[in-house]
Amino acid sequence: MTSGSVRLRNCCCLDPLHGVEFETKDLLIKEGLFRPAAGGDGEDAKEIDASGRIVVPGGILPSFKVLLGAAGGLTLDPVASARALLQTGFTTVIVDGITPFTALDAHLQMQRFPVVNKVPIIDLANFQFFTGFLNNGVHNYAAAVAAAVLGKFKGHGISSIGPGSALNWSDAGSARAQKLRDPIPFLNMSIEKVIAELPAIHGHGSFKTGILIETGIEGSPGSREQLDGLYGKIGGAGTPGGASPLVAMKQLSRSALDPAFKGGDISENVASTVAALSSAGSIAGVMDFPSMQFSSTTFVDNASSPLHDPGHMVARGIVEGELLVVAYSISEKDKKELAVRYWLSGMELALSMPAQLKERVAFSLMPQLVDGPENITSALGCLLSERYRLSARMGFHDEATRAGAAERLEGKMLTLPELVAFTRAAPARMFGLDKILGGLGDGQLGDAIILDARPGDIERLRDEPGELHTLLSRPHAVIKGGNVALKNGEIERQIRGSTILHETRADPSISESIEQNLDKQFLKYYSTHIDGKIVPASLAEPAIID
Question: CA-CA to 174 of 20 to 30 Å: which in 40, 318, 474, 536?
Fold first, then answer.
């Protein structure tokens, strides 16, 4: 990472990770990291006067895709994505679902993303060697496999994204929640079994890292009850609001809506989701909000969905011989209305959530082609302001949905500190990144957003949708690693962000045999040795998390 030194004067700091709410003080970033600002340290640092403006940590966007086409190239513009993220205050992305087989290509493409930090999450759920150990209860060997794969393919955490072929999930369009319990071809174990066994690998040696689970059954008839059962199986080991949750469930907003129910009343399912999370202390979550730009939005997803239809697929990538990445656009009126209901369920879930859950649920976006700030600012603005939400609802095609949004969301909004917690503190804790990301504390990466507002402006901005949009999409400045990365809406310089990795230490008594068997598995299933897929150190600028 290109690191610099800067002293930020007269900052009104908002840092929920450290319990700081609108506290005026100076901040020092020295050699890319926040350091105590007192004394003469950092006298050679450049000075910037925030003049009492609100300063928040850089945002973290979970569930970001590095979308690889069939030829291995990116399907989105990395510079446009980085600019859109910076404009809305996000300096880190969680890149989830990278398979070992495509890790090298993914890292090659991640290098092209300027400025933002990348946190790669490696998918292990499809790998027979790993799931074989889970199925047999040999958790120390499963942990050793995970440690070896994270080390060789440069990851921070592991992902379970619906083991088996995506084609298996969409047989004749009859997605059903019972598939959680059906044996997966070649793996001889069910999705439910994989997910329930994953937390056990944390109890062995020094292997501690984030787990991101995407079941792929969201929106299927009966999925609400099935996911409730999963929460109960894996969620009893933690303390609400405590240290990093063990498991992050991805499909919180979409699983809150069963599309088989046509009446439009989703409040009961939202309440059920809140209750399940409240009783599952070690589970965090990611809420995926669909975009508000329904007429032109291209959706990107990698799991089975009621929105899938061959007539709407515009691109597809082949991963490990399976259809895993599918990009599709929504053109039919009823499917647009379903997307609106997904948006409504996620929005109601966010706005109705009790305080203790806001500490461990993170904000994300369902459309993961980030090529402009509109999708991000629309969702953020709708969470902060009822008037902003009213103006955005005019884009809904269905009058009943528009009326339903008014009825369920009227008068509800997040405070700015709550929004910052959703987009900074919660995802940092969720993925075990809170020592280095998500706050303005000593030793953390020097990523700070100077908003063009002071605390006294917030109430007025809630009633001015245009000004609120400007605040969210045009910060006064973005400081990345002690360097001014964006000012007046323009990227100031091409700074490289860190690739944040997890330092893994497998049991030395079994690590050698594990690596030998990994190589044999690659040769057996992929006709290539593991050396052909290892990500070289030159492709990452790591900030190691121990």
Answer: 318
Task: Say which residues have a Cβ less than 8 Å from residue 152's Cβ, sequence separation at least 6.
Answer: 100, 518, 530, 534, 535
| Mean per-residue pLDDT of the chain | 80
Confidence (pLDDT) at 303: 45
For 434-443, the pLDDT digits (tens) are 999 999 999 9
- 263: part of which helix (H) or strand (E)? none
CB atoms within 10 A of CB 137: 10
123 contacts 156 by C-beta, under 8 angstroms: no
Give burial (CB, 10 Å; 0-12/13-18/19+) of 176.
Answer: middle
Please, which residues have CB within 8 angstroms of residue 195's CB and are 6 or more apart in sequence? 160, 213, 215, 230, 233, 234
Supply the pLDDT for residue 172: 41
Residue 310, classified by CB atoms within 10 Å of its CB into exposed (0-12), middle (13-18) or buried (19+), is exposed
Long-range contacts, 260-269 (Cβ 8 Å, 24+) = 260/221, 264/341, 264/400, 264/401, 264/404, 266/341, 266/344, 266/345, 266/348, 267/348, 267/408, 269/224, 269/345
In the structure encoding, which two tokens stand for residue 533, read together? 């897929």
Query: pTM for this one?
Result: 0.90
Q: How far is CA 492 from CA 449, 479, 495, in A?
A: 14, 10, 9
Q: Please choose, from the candidates 490, 491, 493, 449, the residue with its C-alpha nearest in 3D space to the C-alpha of residue 471.
A: 449
| 3-state SS, residue 213 | strand
Q: What pLDDT, on the 0 to 100 scale, is given for residue 391?
A: 84
Residues of the chain with pLDDT under 50: 70-74, 164-175, 238-243, 302-304, 313-325
Q: Which two tokens stand for residue 33?
A: 């990291």
What is residue 94's three-state secondary structure? Answer: strand
DSSP letter for each residue of 145-173: HHHHHHHHHT-SEEEE--SS-HHHHTGGG
- pLDDT of the residue at 296: 57
Nearest-angstrom CA–CA distance, 387 and 238: 38
Bin 370: left if φ > 0, else alpha if -120 < ψ < 50, else beta: beta
Residue 7, token pair as written in the block: 């002293």
452-461 per-position pLDDT tens digit: 999 999 999 9
Chain-centroid distance, C-alpha 43: 37
**In a 3-state reduction of DSSP, which class is residue 121?**
strand
Among residues 84, 157, 126, 144, the alpha carbon closest in space to that of 378 is found at 84
Residue 318 token pair: 């082949």
